[in-house]
Design brief:
Number of domains: 1
Helix content: 40-55%
Shape: globular
Number of helices: 4
Radius of gyration: 12 Å
Structural class: mainly alpha
Order of helices and strands: HHHH
C-alpha cells in the first residue's frame, strides 16, 4: 500500500510467472511464499528483502 500499487501491478513488475491470486493469498497470510517469491516481490517493490520481512537488525 505504501508504494501505491495494486496486486495486479505488482505481478506485472515481478520476474517469473506468478498467479495474481497467489499475491492475494500471501498478503492475507493464507499461504507461505517461497524465498524466491519473497525475493521477486522485494525486487518488484524496489526494496531490500530484509525490509519486506521487517526483520530488525538485532534479530539477525
Amino acid at each position: 500500500m505504501q508504494k501505491g500499487i495494486s496486486q495486479a501491478d505488482l505481478v506485472g513488475r515481478m520476474e517469473g510467472n506468478i498467479d495474481p491470486t497467489n499475491i492475494s493469498r500471501i498478503e492475507a497470510g493464507r499461504t507461505n511464499p517461497t524465498v524466491i517469491t519473497l525475493y521477486r516481490i522485494a525486487e518488484a517493490l524496489e526494496i531490500k528483502l530484509v525490509d519486506l520481512l521487517n526483520i530488525e537488525a538485532s534479530e539477525r
